[in-house]
Amino acid sequence: MAYEVKHLEELTVVGEKRSYDSIEDAQQKSQQFWTGFKQSDQRARLTIEADDQFQGFFGIYFPTDNGVDYMIGVSSARETSEWTSHHIPAGNYLVFEAGRPVSREIQRITNEAYEVIIPASQHDLRNAPEFEYYPFGNVTAADYTAEMWIPVE
Protein backbone atom coordinates (compact mmCIF):
# COMPACT_ATOMS: atom_id res chain seq x y z
CA MET A 1 0.00 0.00 0.00
CA ALA A 2 1.49 3.32 -1.07
CA TYR A 3 1.79 6.32 1.21
CA GLU A 4 3.56 9.66 1.43
CA VAL A 5 5.26 11.34 4.36
CA LYS A 6 3.95 14.89 4.65
CA HIS A 7 4.78 17.65 7.10
CA LEU A 8 1.78 19.49 8.52
CA GLU A 9 2.12 22.94 10.04
CA GLU A 10 0.03 23.55 13.16
CA LEU A 11 -3.60 23.54 12.16
CA THR A 12 -6.64 24.99 13.89
CA VAL A 13 -9.86 23.10 13.30
CA VAL A 14 -13.42 23.94 14.27
CA GLY A 15 -16.41 21.65 14.25
CA GLU A 16 -18.74 19.34 16.12
CA LYS A 17 -17.39 16.61 18.40
CA ARG A 18 -18.60 13.52 20.20
CA SER A 19 -16.92 11.64 23.05
CA TYR A 20 -16.43 7.86 23.01
CA ASP A 21 -15.04 5.27 25.42
CA SER A 22 -12.35 4.04 23.00
CA ILE A 23 -10.96 4.45 19.49
CA GLU A 24 -12.82 1.27 18.49
CA ASP A 25 -16.07 2.71 19.82
CA ALA A 26 -15.45 5.93 17.88
CA GLN A 27 -14.69 4.02 14.68
CA GLN A 28 -17.89 1.99 15.00
CA LYS A 29 -20.14 4.97 15.77
CA SER A 30 -18.56 7.68 13.61
CA GLN A 31 -20.62 6.61 10.57
CA GLN A 32 -23.83 7.43 12.49
CA PHE A 33 -22.29 10.77 13.48
CA TRP A 34 -21.49 11.54 9.81
CA THR A 35 -24.99 10.52 8.69
CA GLY A 36 -26.63 12.87 11.18
CA PHE A 37 -24.17 15.62 10.29
CA LYS A 38 -24.87 15.35 6.55
CA GLN A 39 -28.64 15.33 7.10
CA SER A 40 -28.58 18.48 9.24
CA ASP A 41 -27.82 22.08 8.34
CA GLN A 42 -24.46 21.78 10.17
CA ARG A 43 -22.70 20.71 6.97
CA ALA A 44 -23.54 23.95 5.15
CA ARG A 45 -22.83 26.10 8.22
CA LEU A 46 -19.47 24.45 8.85
CA THR A 47 -18.42 24.65 5.18
CA ILE A 48 -18.61 28.45 5.45
CA GLU A 49 -15.99 28.37 8.23
CA ALA A 50 -13.36 26.56 6.11
CA ASP A 51 -10.20 28.46 5.21
CA ASP A 52 -7.84 27.86 2.27
CA GLN A 53 -5.44 25.49 4.06
CA PHE A 54 -7.68 22.48 3.46
CA GLN A 55 -10.84 22.58 1.37
CA GLY A 56 -12.74 19.72 2.92
CA PHE A 57 -13.95 18.02 6.07
CA PHE A 58 -11.89 16.24 8.69
CA GLY A 59 -12.79 13.31 10.90
CA ILE A 60 -10.30 13.74 13.76
CA TYR A 61 -9.52 11.42 16.67
CA PHE A 62 -8.39 13.32 19.78
CA PRO A 63 -7.25 10.97 22.59
CA THR A 64 -8.52 11.95 26.05
CA ASP A 65 -8.00 10.62 29.57
CA ASN A 66 -11.40 8.88 29.35
CA GLY A 67 -11.32 7.58 25.77
CA VAL A 68 -11.37 9.56 22.56
CA ASP A 69 -13.17 12.55 21.08
CA TYR A 70 -14.10 12.36 17.41
CA MET A 71 -14.61 15.67 15.63
CA ILE A 72 -16.10 16.47 12.25
CA GLY A 73 -14.45 19.74 11.37
CA VAL A 74 -12.76 22.07 8.92
CA SER A 75 -9.51 24.03 9.05
CA SER A 76 -10.30 27.56 10.13
CA ALA A 77 -8.43 30.46 11.68
CA ARG A 78 -11.72 31.77 13.08
CA GLU A 79 -12.79 30.48 16.47
CA THR A 80 -16.49 30.94 17.19
CA SER A 81 -18.78 30.10 20.06
CA GLU A 82 -20.88 27.96 17.71
CA TRP A 83 -18.18 25.33 17.15
CA THR A 84 -15.62 23.45 19.23
CA SER A 85 -12.06 24.48 18.42
CA HIS A 86 -8.92 22.29 18.57
CA HIS A 87 -5.33 22.56 17.45
CA ILE A 88 -3.47 19.84 15.60
CA PRO A 89 0.26 20.21 16.35
CA ALA A 90 2.82 20.53 13.59
CA GLY A 91 4.62 17.36 12.61
CA ASN A 92 5.03 14.55 10.12
CA TYR A 93 2.26 12.25 8.96
CA LEU A 94 1.98 9.12 6.87
CA VAL A 95 -0.73 9.94 4.34
CA PHE A 96 -2.69 7.14 2.67
CA GLU A 97 -5.25 7.61 -0.12
CA ALA A 98 -8.65 5.92 0.16
CA GLY A 99 -10.94 5.33 -2.81
CA ARG A 100 -14.51 4.11 -2.83
CA PRO A 101 -16.35 2.98 -0.83
CA VAL A 102 -14.67 5.61 1.31
CA SER A 103 -15.75 4.59 4.82
CA ARG A 104 -14.76 0.96 4.28
CA GLU A 105 -11.48 1.93 2.62
CA ILE A 106 -10.54 4.29 5.47
CA GLN A 107 -11.11 1.44 7.96
CA ARG A 108 -9.13 -1.04 5.84
CA ILE A 109 -6.24 1.37 5.32
CA THR A 110 -6.09 2.29 9.00
CA ASN A 111 -5.99 -1.37 10.05
CA GLU A 112 -3.30 -2.25 7.50
CA ALA A 113 -1.22 0.81 8.39
CA TYR A 114 -1.15 -0.02 12.10
CA GLU A 115 -0.85 -3.79 11.74
CA VAL A 116 1.55 -4.12 8.79
CA ILE A 117 3.05 -0.94 7.37
CA ILE A 118 4.12 1.02 10.46
CA PRO A 119 5.65 -2.00 12.27
CA ALA A 120 7.64 -2.86 9.12
CA SER A 121 8.76 0.73 8.50
CA GLN A 122 11.31 2.99 10.12
CA HIS A 123 8.53 5.32 11.36
CA ASP A 124 7.61 5.63 15.02
CA LEU A 125 4.15 6.80 16.00
CA ARG A 126 3.88 10.31 17.43
CA ASN A 127 1.46 11.40 20.15
CA ALA A 128 -0.85 13.56 18.04
CA PRO A 129 -4.34 13.22 16.57
CA GLU A 130 -4.84 11.01 13.54
CA PHE A 131 -7.40 12.18 11.06
CA GLU A 132 -9.39 11.43 7.94
CA TYR A 133 -9.55 14.13 5.28
CA TYR A 134 -12.51 14.34 2.89
CA PRO A 135 -12.03 17.01 0.20
CA PHE A 136 -15.19 18.90 -0.73
CA GLY A 137 -16.85 17.16 -3.65
CA ASN A 138 -19.02 14.23 -4.58
CA VAL A 139 -17.93 11.33 -2.35
CA THR A 140 -19.88 8.92 -4.55
CA ALA A 141 -17.94 9.86 -7.71
CA ALA A 142 -15.82 7.05 -9.14
CA ASP A 143 -12.64 9.15 -8.89
CA TYR A 144 -13.23 10.61 -5.39
CA THR A 145 -10.29 10.12 -3.04
CA ALA A 146 -10.12 10.73 0.72
CA GLU A 147 -7.00 10.52 2.88
CA MET A 148 -5.98 8.99 6.20
CA TRP A 149 -3.27 10.93 8.10
CA ILE A 150 -1.33 9.04 10.82
CA PRO A 151 1.16 11.02 12.99
CA VAL A 152 4.78 9.80 13.01
CA GLU A 153 8.16 11.05 14.24
TrEMBL record:
SMART domains given in the database record: AraC_E_bind
Gene3D superfamilies, per the entry: Regulatory factor, effector binding domain (3.20.80.10)
Domain spans labelled AraC effector-binding: 1-153
Pfam families, sorted: Cass2 (PF14526)
Alphabetical list of SUPFAM superfamilies matching this protein: Probable bacterial effector-binding domain
Transmembrane annotation, as ranges: none
Protein name listed in UniProt: AraC effector-binding domain-containing protein
Source organism per UniProt: Macrococcus carouselicus
